[in-house]
Amino acid sequence: MQSYPGVQALVRRTHEERVLQVLREQGALSRNQIARAIGLSRTTLSEITGSLLQRGAIVVTDTDAAHREGSGRPAERLALDPASGQFMGVDFGHRRVHVVVADASHEIVASGSDRYADHVDWPTRLDVAFRLVERLSDQYGVHYGALQGVGIGIPGPYSGKPGVRDYPSHRSAADGFHEASVDEAFGERFGAPVIVDNNTRLAALAEAIFGEKAIENLLYVRLSDGVGGGLVVGGRLVSGSAGLAGELGHVTVTADGSPCRCGKNGCLETIASVPAILAACRAAGLPVESLDDLAAAIARSHPLADRVLRDAAAAVGRVLAAVAMALNPSEIVIGGEITRLAPVIVQQASATVAYESFPSTPSPDVRATRLAAHAADVRAAHLADDDGALGALAAVFHSSPLLAGYPETPAPTGAGPRAAMPPRQTRGVADGRHQ
Amino acid sequence: MQSYPGVQALVRRTHEERVLQVLREQGALSRNQIARAIGLSRTTLSEITGSLLQRGAIVVTDTDAAHREGSGRPAERLALDPASGQFMGVDFGHRRVHVVVADASHEIVASGSDRYADHVDWPTRLDVAFRLVERLSDQYGVHYGALQGVGIGIPGPYSGKPGVRDYPSHRSAADGFHEASVDEAFGERFGAPVIVDNNTRLAALAEAIFGEKAIENLLYVRLSDGVGGGLVVGGRLVSGSAGLAGELGHVTVTADGSPCRCGKNGCLETIASVPAILAACRAAGLPVESLDDLAAAIARSHPLADRVLRDAAAAVGRVLAAVAMALNPSEIVIGGEITRLAPVIVQQASATVAYESFPSTPSPDVRATRLAAHAADVRAAHLADDDGALGALAAVFHSSPLLAGYPETPAPTGAGPRAAMPPRQTRGVADGRHQ
């Protein structure tokens, strides 16, 4: 085959981009893992990683001794140069902001949270967040000069397309808050691209990504002041046609149930939100005013608490099972602080989903048998309060421009390949895909 | 900027591939539409289309006079050379096989269907299908020498990843049928790549694609002998973790309902399948044995038929609304012959979905108001019995290799760019994405 130096350089450059992308998305990996992930031969890959190591774009972090099964010589793990950039995930909850900062090798280098008053206005929340960011800088010795991107979770529906800077609608006339405000405030402060999305959805993404292996199809529900959810389908976070996907809290469970704030009756939120569960306990004669009270009742194995929680969890299970019939996820995750206090919630929801997925008797129906064999696992969330911030970080890791700021080895024909590349993005986030 | 002929040729080649891809996926388009779709300037695009026209890869089919709004000079519409290839969509129903053949400009050049006995074995179905294909060849003067791909819909769950030739499981020990059989039989017969998927899912894809504009997020349910469904999320057909997505028929609607063949009680299928609806009519005192009988009762505005149909449709609406809360689709489509006979089904399901999505009173909840404003449109399927075959065709259009069989203008540096391209696929389908 004839040699075409310009083309070869372009091909090599493409390979480099793919290596860097997989490391940005997945953190430290062995050469074998990288070769498998992007479908290159070990030989070709070694050339590519050799060049990237030499130029300092990637580094050897450790060996896979701690991660591997079986025997054999431990292999080196490679990662992006940790110093090559930082990534920030921020989650604005109703009462608290969380911030996590990671380096380019996916190591969390700083994290913290700070409270603000319930339903305080957005300028105040931003102020608390920026002071927290400053404090983390002092505390952990982190400087934000190399910040490559910021992911931000906000409560409530987010109708802007994630990652796109064109915000079609206002959040709420009541507090004068504009969705673009958060984005712009962070963008101006750090000069880095910003992604904004609903924080429950980002928590779903975090649960899909920060496990032993990434989950391609996952359904997530969070029981909190309200009930929200998120879906990962085919490895991508689902937004829906108007950015409103994941509203599991307003699926009707009992048509003649209690009135919901949305105007319907018997929505899942009227049964399985924390306030609804506490109210149901009180109605049953158990005087609980807070999650702490409920935790104490659970610790005493109080049968009223158990009954109320099982009823709520069965309702959650029925809604999850219906959506799982449509989507066939491999995992269903239930999050929220109450899930950690009351393991019975996941137990009962899991039993309900299993019943709804499995035929109760061996079935003559091939389809039912298949569904039974592939029913989703139901589990409690692995992550805790920083799930939204970690999800925001994951969203950024999956959408950042690559190779920015690295010296290139001169291509044999000069700057040829460069001329063929699109102009590098230095601000604004690629395409909003969270994959 | 310095000139690098090899690289420039590669860039041009990439642009050509994108132009051909958008034409393959969307059929005839004006130059402006192509430029918008792939983000090229009109000037660059004109160079690309000029070269493709000159080489015969694309042709001018007509003008957009029939499609455009407003005044102005009609623009030419370009399409792939119709003679450059054919694409076949096949749908194996329970009692009938449908075949459609299109040329590369998306023009349907042949279509037909043939019956076989209910639940006949697969070798017989294949035999009927191949004879139909031969007959269409004679009837329409179609020769299959340029067949570029075959899409095939089969009833029941399809657990192979669409487009991937590795079939992990057998279909059913009972009839000795292996899912790979259909694929292999067509592949051997026509020497073309084959895609197989569940035919209800393919119908969902067809409804999403063959409308005035493509729908990115669509939820589809079909009421027939059973109840099945399909989902398009973010422009992609959803398979789920085990290829079982879309099983809307086995969502529980009434926990104390009639036994379902799956082993549960009160599944949607026990209420809204055609046999279930006929049985409910009979139980209510209306002696109907077939869809024809039911159609006659509907024509007489029989109140019992109306009541049974409304009850069934309300159940369909509740299931659709629950899944729509999770996915936020812009359209919900109800298919199946009974939907055409009984418009009340779509009317009632639409009313139920609207109620479940809209708060019944102006709501203080921003989220509810948003959801209300973005509730999905519920409509009857546009397509009829050939929907599965058309969906199979759509799946093929979206996954075929491009530029096959076209002469290239020699690149300035010789065969340079070619050396950089991956080997062209002549068999086996790209990546299973239906996007």
Shape of chain A: globular
State the CATH architecture of the largest domain in chain A. 2-Layer Sandwich
Query: What would the CATH topology of the largest domain in chain A be?
Result: Nucleotidyltransferase, domain 5
Main pleated-sheet profile of chain A? 5 strands, mixed
Strand order of the largest sheet of chain A: 6-5-4-7-8
Region (Disordered) (chains A, B): 407-435
InterPro entries (chains A, B): ATPase_NBD, ROK, ROK_cs, WH-like_DNA-bd_sf, WH_DNA-bd_sf
Family (chains A, B): Belongs to the ROK (NagC/XylR) family.
Biased composition (Low complexity) (chains A, B): 407-423
Give an account of the 3D structure.
Two copies of one chain form a homodimer. The first copy, chain A, is α/β, with parallel strands linked by helices and 435 residues long. Chain A folds into three domains: 5-80 and 404-420, Winged helix-like DNA-binding domain superfamily/Winged helix DNA-binding domain (Arc Repressor Mutant, subunit A); 85-203 and 387-397, ATPase, nucleotide binding domain (Nucleotidyltransferase, domain 5), CATH 3.30.420; 212-380, 2-Layer Sandwich (Nucleotidyltransferase, domain 5), CATH 3.30.420. Chain A has 15 helices and 13 strands. In chain A, the strands form three sheets. In chain A, strands 6-5-4-7-8 form a five-stranded mixed beta sheet, sandwiched between helices. Chain A has a five-stranded mixed beta sheet with strand order 11-10-9-12-13, with helices on both faces. In chain A, a hairpin with a 4-residue loop joins strand 5 and strand 6 (108-115). In chain A, helix 1 (5-26) packs across helix 3 and helix 10 (303-327) packs across helix 12. The longest helix of chain A has 25 residues, at 303-327. The relative contact order of chain A is 0.13. At the A-B interface, helix 1, strand 10, helix 10, helix 13 and helix 15 of A face helix 1, strand 10, helix 10, helix 13 and helix 15 of B.
